[in-house]
What we know:
Elements: H1 3-19, E1 26-31, E2 34-40, H2 43-46, H3 53-61, E3 70-74, H4 80-89, E4 93-96, H5 106-111, E5 115-118, H6 122-134, H7 136-142
Helix pairs in contact: 6-7
Amino acid sequence: xxxxxxxxxxxxxxxxxxxxxxxxxxxxxxxxxxxxxxxxxxxxxxxxxxxxxxxxxxxxxxxxxxxxxxxxxxxxxxxxxxxxxxxxxxxxxxxxxxxxxxxxxxxxxxxxxxxxxxxxxxxxxxxxxxxxxxxxxxxxxxxxx
Length: 145
């Protein structure tokens, strides 16, 4: 699969979360272009403050040995929680759908040797912009404000 196809998996996961009444953020994990796992934000659905999309994706990946040769795709720039997991597991590349609506922690990732590629995809920006406008209280809860 290409980066575009793998990001499409993450976007589909974000839409799934939205359809479940959750926050529209999705993630996918791949090795050599092969999808290992995908996940989405489930904070609302599971009433769990740490089930962000990237965490859900990593949980679904399970024990795969080393994560060092994997790439993590996320529709939104990873927060410090998720960036910490990326660094902890040695993931070296993160592809981001957008960081306009939330900047995430790209400097933290880069300081730890992670390549961050921000695609600035209009679909991702539009999905988050609309969600934030319609659900400001839920969004602020998600990002800890």
